[in-house]
Amino acid sequence: MSTSVVSPGASSGGAPIRSLEAPGPRIGEKIIKAVLWATATLSILVTTGIVISLLLPSIGFFQQVSIWEFLTGTIWAPAFANPSYGVLPIVVGTLTVVFFAILIAVPVGLASAIYLSEYASKRVRKTIKPILEVLEGLPTVAIGLFAFNVLTPLIRELTPFLPWTGPFSIGVAGITVGLLIIPLVASVSDDAMRSVPASLREGAYAMGATKFEVAIKVVVPAAISGIIAAFVLGISRAIGETMVVLLVAGAGNPVLSFDPTKGTQTMTAYIGSTATGDISQGTITYDSIFAVGALLFLMTLAMNVLAMRLVKKYREVYD
Amino acid sequence: MADEPDYSSRVALPPRTRVAVGGAREVTESLFTSGDRKKKIQGTIFLGLLLFGLSIALISIAAMITWAFVAGGPRLNTNLFTNVPSVVTPENAGYRTAILGTLYVIGGVIVLIVPLGVGAAIYLEQFANPANKFNRFVDLNIQNLAGVPSIVFGILGLAFIVRGPLSLGFVAAAGSLTLALLVLPTVILASREAIRAVPSSIRDGSLALGATVWQAVWRQVLPAALPGILTGVILAVSRAIGEAAPLLLVGAVTFVTFNPSFFEGGYSTLPTMIYSYAKRPQEELQVLAAAGVVVMLVLLIMINSVAIYLRNRFERTW
Q1: Distance (Å) from the C-alpha of residue B21 to the closest C-alpha of chain A?
Q2: CATH number of A241's domain
Q3: What's the CATH class of domain B79-314?
Q4: Contact call for A141 and B142, based on CB within 8 A
Q5: A277 is in which domain, residue-wise?
Q6: Which of A39, A182, A278, A311 best tests the B interface by mutation, with the highest count of B CBs <10 A?
Q7: What is residue A109's three-state secondary structure?
């Protein structure tokens, strides 16, 4: 890096000037770039594939069942001799799961996040975070079995005044899904709270605020969009959960009911249990799997897009 | 008077003076300690609630693992690994074919996701122009795919892989492909994160010395990002191992009594086999299902430990 200006060619005793351009067009490089581009574009093909695979059979389905009847009907009995395709009972089943899941996951997840972000020492954080990740990584079959064998009897013991019938319960399924999404809610909220600048906290402390006041009145409001994003992601995950619902709520007879003590079906459980049975391609029952799948896809897509917007919002404010 | 500060031991004072001295002290202290007793109690209760919340999560993990070992305990022996599934003789049934099925399926997943996932990540981080609309769309699309419920991937697998364009049938390869597509977004996002963590000075230095972009990526950036990428791949694979819902739709629920093969014949995996056992009424099969959970947990804990080890071993700050 010499600072003196030297005319080209004069610097190294009259050596010929060599161009810095590559001698050839570098075809290999171009091929590699094209291959890498193809791998990145594959994800678009996957999305397209999902949309097509949901849409085509759904069109066939909606030629026989009107969309209005599908969305507002209150009886879901696709495999019966006198079939009825009102999706509301299984949508209500899904919403019941979401309700109970949020009831558990929001307070517990938020409390864990506030503790990790505001109270825990670095060492405690480093121990607890991987443990929470373990909970996130546990197979849902395992969690569902545990809930069916341990949680359901336990909750029944604790609430003898509720009208429990049969071994299955949609409410317990919701609570279990809630346990499952605690790590998700906790880690997304924790990220949001940690991206709140330290100066905000220091300002509050300087004004004489206690740790509790800083956490509740400064950090949580400042990170609120990220925290809401965590809830929304949790809802999306709860909507899509299958194995826990199949095992704990039993995928039984879908009746339009808000009673959490009874077993019923959700959208995912319907897809999971119907597809495992022997149903032939081309029947309306087969197509109904895809119609329900399309509804499920749209619901989770809406939630995910909302969550992404919220996360973007807090990133814009603090990053 | 219960919480009166203890000054009497130092100086013997007459009662009236004591009250005055105590009051003076309290007022001064309240100026310096942050406010009143109420706030202190408030803070303690709040911390208690936080710890209670956190402990719910931790206790449920511990309870689950304990339950699996207790309930599955009677069946934890080598028969579990060597015997084939059976409903007729549940006391002798095992997981051999399901474990093999999982190995086949996961082997296929690894072969697919490593090149596809890392390739996409390299392209998006090192080659793509982030201002380009198409690239932004790809990016958004991957984030969205990561949030699609796993059962929807099962539907994709059923419509496109088992039947439809690929028509592989209900075979292990179909399960493999379905799970690979499911975890691909995870691998891409994790690999991107790992590649992004490599300082751009490494790449810039390499480019300044005359390397092409690919040479810089292959010889400098990728080796530096490798531990992070590996961690991401391992975590994605461990998710695939425990995944059952999409496999229900692509055929992995059959009771297979022969060793599976990749492209033909029925197959089953550890989590779907556990589900099949758990659904049946026999008491022995419930025990067997719990024992299967233990096998799966031990496998996952081993795999995750490798990921955590890698992360700590190679974690470095630039």
Answers
A1: 26
A2: 1.10.3720.10
A3: mainly alpha
A4: no
A5: 76-318
A6: A39
A7: helix
What is the pLDDT, as a whole number, of residue A278? Answer: 63
Give which of A46, A56, A304 to mutate to test B binding, by max B Cβ within 10 Å: A46
B195-215 pLDDT, tens digit each: 988 888 989 999 999 888 889
Q: What is the complex's ipTM, to 2 decimals?
A: 0.84
List, for residues A28-61, the tens digit of each pLDDT value. Answer: 888 988 999 999 889 899 999 999 989 888 888 8
* Mean pLDDT of all residues in A195-221: 87
The verdict on a CB contact (< 8 Å) between B154 and A212 is: no
Give residue limits of the domains in chain B: 15-74, 79-314
pTM score of the predicted model: 0.83
CB B63 within 8 A of CB B292: no
pLDDT tens digits, A91-115: 888 999 999 999 999 999 999 999 8
Check if B214 contacts A (Cβ < 8 Å).
Answer: yes
DSSP state of A80: S
- DSSP run (H or E) holding A125: helix A122-137
Is residue A20 predicted with pLDDT exceeding 80? no
**A102 min Cα distance to partner chain B (Å):** 14
pLDDT tier for residue B52 given thresholds of 50, 70 and 90: confident
